[in-house]
Amino acid sequence: MHDNREPDQKPLGISGRTAKAFQSTEITPLLAIVGMLLGLLAILITPKEEEPQIDVTFANVFIPFPGASPVEVEQLVSTPAEQVLSEIEGVEHTMSVSRAGMSVLTVQFEVGITRQQAIVRLYNQVFSNSDWLPSNLGVGQPLIKPMGIDDVPIMSLTLWSDDSSLGSHELKKIAHNLEVELKRVKGTRDIYTLGGPDTAVRVTLDPARLSGFNISLDDLRNALQAGNTTGSETRVITDNTVIPVQAGDFLSTVEDVRRLIVGLNNNTPVYLSDVADITLGSDVPEQSVFMGTGPAFAESAKSGLYPAVTIAIAKQPGQNAIDITESVNKRIEQLKNIAIPDNIQVTVTRDYGETANNKSNTLISKLIFATGAVVLLVLAALGFRQALIVGLAIVITLMITLFASWAYGFTLNRVSLFALIFSIGILVDDAIVVVENIHRHLSMGGKSMREAIPLAVDEVGGPTILATFTVIAALMPMAFVTGLMGPYMSPIPINASMGMLISLVIAFVVTPWLALKLLKHDAQNNQTEAEHETANTKMLAFFRAMVGSFLQGKKGRKKRVALGVGIAVLMMVSVALPASLAVVLKMLPFDNKSEVQIIVDMPEGTPVEQTQRVLLELGEYLQTIPEVTHYQTYAGTAAPINFNGLVRQYYLRADPHSGDIQVNLADKGERDRKSHDIALGMRASLQQIGARYNANVKVVEVPPGPPVIAPIVAEIYGPDQEAMTDTAKALRARLAQTDGIVDVDDMIEAQAKKYLLQVDRQKASLLGVPQARIVSAITAALGGEDISYLHESHQKYALPIRLELNEADKSNLLQFMTLKVRSINGDLVALSEVVNLVDAQWEKTIYHKDLLPVTFVTADMAGELDSPLYGMFDLIGQLDDEPLFKDTPLEQFFIQQPEWPLVPSVKWDGEWQITYETFRDMGIAYGVGMILIYMLVVAQFRSYRVPLIIMTPIPLTVIGVMPGHALLGAQFTATSMIGMIALAGIIVRNSILLVDFINQQLAEGISFEEAVIQSGAVRAKPIILTALAAMIGALFILDDPIFNGLAITLIFGLTVSTLLTLIVIPVMYYAFAPQRIKDLDQTLSKV
């Protein structure tokens, strides 16, 4: 019997009716043109960024409690504040850091809650519960600082000079002027400068001169405050004219400050300059930045290390990063030799606009090449005109999908563009199936084009609609993955699903119109039925040989069993590959970035100058790495944060012992080594240098996806602080001994000395000196006090008049104690008379997370297995075999923290947590997708058994996926899992085409055996074409470090599953088809 048997006339379905309505109407080309124009509009107006913008909002609440110990801060401030903040709707975690005099609380909101929602809820909760603190306790007003993705600078400019006469103070003044100019660039948000000392009027006290003139520190404070006061402007009327009058004027010059009278000595005025040195200039630096150049720096003549400052620039939400950074660069060029002297260099040390532009241009070119490759595939298989139809259908579909993506709120970023490239292969499926069937019907002859096209579309319309929705059913559940990974990857399921719907409409509306216009030549040169059969003879013979042997009675049954056993063995071998470490499991592989960060933690108590010296020595080693273009060292402050720094809260690193080096590498096209290999290579040498100074040095790479606090995090809980500290130290030691684990650190502060200037209350009372006055004098002298401000014009930042001792007197406490305060009787009393110097220990910081005391141990994984999961589970196995403590058990938690830790406990976090949550949600999405697919197929075929047969190839994909990863030495990652989910929909689509064709042939009176054989022969071409199209799309993302798992899954999974589907589905359908199908075959055979 023949596959082109003339069917009984029956009404067209929705797809056939749609094709018939639009194949010759004038509105069809207009709709296509509108779709193209919408796509062009979307390309022009959609913001371009390198990474997806994720609504992840943090907020820090700073609550000062001057003089309180960490324990007092914890009990009176942090704990009640945590309880209040944890009640806020949408809060995922609350954390607190209780240190001497300050509570820092961090509120982490759930992903997806907008910044505005989070801030409103936080402010309402804080200030509606402001009575949680006892009145008059001395606790200050809470200061709320929200942080989100838009606080991450997209650009940083480092100002430096090889002119030795220019220091960081002069650079900072120029940077402040540039801030004003750059803020005028449309779309910019926060602009701030890091590094360099501030400008201040420094009033440096001389205790001996103060004592000689009988002047106290309080006298200076009172004189400065009283002498720098004016009243509000009033008015008088003179000669019928209103004249403004202002009482008093401000101190506006340094000379005004010097000439200020602060007291009388023997009826002679004592000027401030008599008892102190007054200078306007550089303040004592609390942070410093240096610029270093490496071997890959373009201006090799300028190699070296120079004082510097860095200007960080963030953008407003929804603005195009590329436009902003280009405008900033243009503005900088305009300001050179005007606001920027010619002896000052401005180096762009971060430009996420440029990287976004490069990435988007690369991906758009890949998108174009992928489209062209698919068109060439169709050209080779079907012919020029058919390829032209498919190419136009793809372009129109992509353009409308881009518009839909913009309307949904996505930006043009690496994930959304990769989603489109990945989608090429499945977006073209509908067009290929429809065009191939039109081509087949025209080749069969006997009908006019206007008759053949609707019939051809209608024949494949039902399975095409069903197949489209099965792919959507497989993909869409991924859009509901929670955590940071969900919105990060959401453009893939959403863009692909929107594209599938659009491609279906294009296939039924535009494709028939194009076929009618372009395939007239095919219709005029129809093959006869005999010629058509001759063209398919080889394919029929092939499938008769391949499939027919499985359909022959008992012999065929044995072959079917053998086929099933063989497939089962292959599946077991494939599944065993991850267990044998032939395939390594990891959340996401490392990307090849152009930056690496080095975090340095010196021992507590280290001054910023020593921290900077260590950073400079580390920098000297960086100058030997060939791929380094330049680097910036930051002491006492953090480098401009990236998304990783936002999540890890690096912006809070402002202690003198904190250091940071931002290393910039040559463009990846100009170096052989990837950034991960460079980071691995530099780690040992950097840590060796740091060890000489007891510094903890960590090499931090930009994470390829959503960041975590550290790749390996152990949260230590326990009944008391001592138990937690002992557990953390023991666990840290065990981590350091585990192979492959590096960058081990903990949150336990080192022992540090502290001086307590203890007031003798009884003696002070007898001498008439209030303790508050003594404390105020000590604080002002040692820490400096901004008494007032100099009202000088043309200053962006206020110029404080700072009262302080010089550094030499501060370090000599015996000399400092000669400083005098005035008693209530007017007598001067030396501090040494009422203050005792007591040695003490610095109280350590106390950490809480989600209302429980906690401490942290962190680490990273490097080496052959760079997946932190293996290092973590290796340690867990060690702990099971050799417990940390013989007498005290250690409880381990993997999902949630302990409710009440009565014994030492560890909750594993870090990459493990996000991996667990992501794969858990993807597994659920996979399951939901399978259920939806099953329900759709049940509804179409009205059978519970047929969907199971159709879905059989889904698990077979593992036979290609796992060996493919092993063959290429790739890790199985989250993107590989996305490919597995997508494969489910794609493979089911092929099965539906086969089963639907068998049913159609049976309805036309063809025997069951012949229908099974012909299904493969007739549907092989569209199935193989769509599979090859998907693989071609995947080939263009194979070289991406992050998405190559998706590409490998599609390429190898489709290769194996497509070949197996063409054999397994017909054979299984023959063996396990519903009885009503077999009954129909028996009835037809008797006719």
Automatic annotation (TrEMBL):
Membrane-traversing stretches: 27-45, 363-382, 389-409, 415-435, 456-480, 492-516, 561-585, 923-941, 948-968, 974-998, 1018-1038, 1050-1072
GO terms, molecular function: xenobiotic transmembrane transporter activity
GO cellular component: plasma membrane
Keyword field contains Transmembrane: yes
Keywords noted in UniProt: Membrane, Transmembrane, Transmembrane helix
Alphabetical list of InterPro entries matching this protein: AcrB_DN_DC_subdom, Acrflvin-R
Protein name: Multidrug transporter AcrB
Species this protein is from: Oceanospirillum linum
